[in-house]
């Protein structure tokens, strides 16, 4: 596993991978003098799953809606409300130790029963590994092993959000990303890392290489 961690951390490789995977990516300084890496990934929800999740009014609810039209919601409004509702939230705090990646990935396995597309699962797991690795190898370089790394994942209907807090110094994330993109025009994800069994231990790897050619 240590070889995989080193590959993710070297030369800004982890930042590049996260940028390629994420729909939104930021790294900001917080009021408590920490840094927060925030990453979100959207995915398509199958039609039958979406319809099952939309709140269906009972007969009584329907009658009440007729009497109280201001409370009535269209199906589109219900979908929008559902999209913004977090239905699962998990968090974890670990020490600054590369070996804690095993614990981080096992923690992520709590979400294995969700109906996530396999492609999304694998990419988000890789982004999680890269985010944790960057915190350990870069943000917490030369800091005590007891320095905490805090992780949080929120699951919405059609969207996953990851946050990683570190205690390192200020860092110009946007400038580093711009530098990486200018130096490396290869926009495909690294299949050598993606095929590493330690990063995806419990999901079948049935993805085609073309799925990882994400526009930069």
Automatic annotation (TrEMBL):
Gene3D superfamilies: Histidine kinase-like ATPase, C-terminal domain. Keywords: Kinase, Serine/threonine-protein kinase, Transferase. Residues 97-189 form the Histidine kinase/HSP90-like ATPase domain. Transmembrane segments: none annotated. Pfam families: HATPase_c_2 (PF13581). One of its GO terms (molecular function) is protein serine/threonine kinase activity. Coiled coil: none annotated. InterPro entries: HATPase_C_sf, HATPase_dom. This is Putative anti-sigma regulatory factor, serine/threonine protein kinase. It comes from Phormidium nigroviride PCC 7112.
């Amino acid at each position: 596993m240590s070889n995989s961690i080193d590959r993710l951390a070297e030369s800004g490789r982890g930042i590049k991978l996260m940028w390629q995977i994420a729909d939104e990516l930021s790294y900001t300084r917080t009021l408590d003098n920490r840094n927060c890496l925030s990453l979100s990934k959207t995915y398509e929800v199958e039609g039958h799953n979406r319809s099952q999740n939309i709140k269906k009014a009972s007969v009584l609810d329907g009658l009440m809606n007729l009497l109280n039209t201001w409370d009535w919601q269209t199906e589109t409004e219900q979908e929008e409300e559902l999209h913004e509702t977090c239905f699962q939230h998990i968090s974890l705090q670990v020490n600054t130790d590369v070996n804690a990646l095993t614990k981080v990935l096992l923690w992520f396995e709590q979400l294995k029963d969700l109906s996530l597309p396999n492609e999304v699962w694998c990419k988000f797991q890789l982004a999680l590994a890269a985010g944790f690795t960057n915190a350990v190898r870069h943000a917490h370089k030369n800091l005590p092993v007891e320095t905490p790394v805090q992780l949080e994942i929120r699951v919405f209907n059609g969207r996953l959000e990851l946050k990683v807090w570190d205690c390192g110094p200020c860092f110009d994330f946007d400038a580093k990303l711009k530098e990486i993109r200018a130096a490396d025009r290869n926009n495909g994800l690294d299949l050598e890392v993606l095929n590493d069994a330690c990063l995806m231990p419990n999901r079948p790897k049935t993805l085609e290489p073309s799925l990882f050619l994400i526009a930069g």
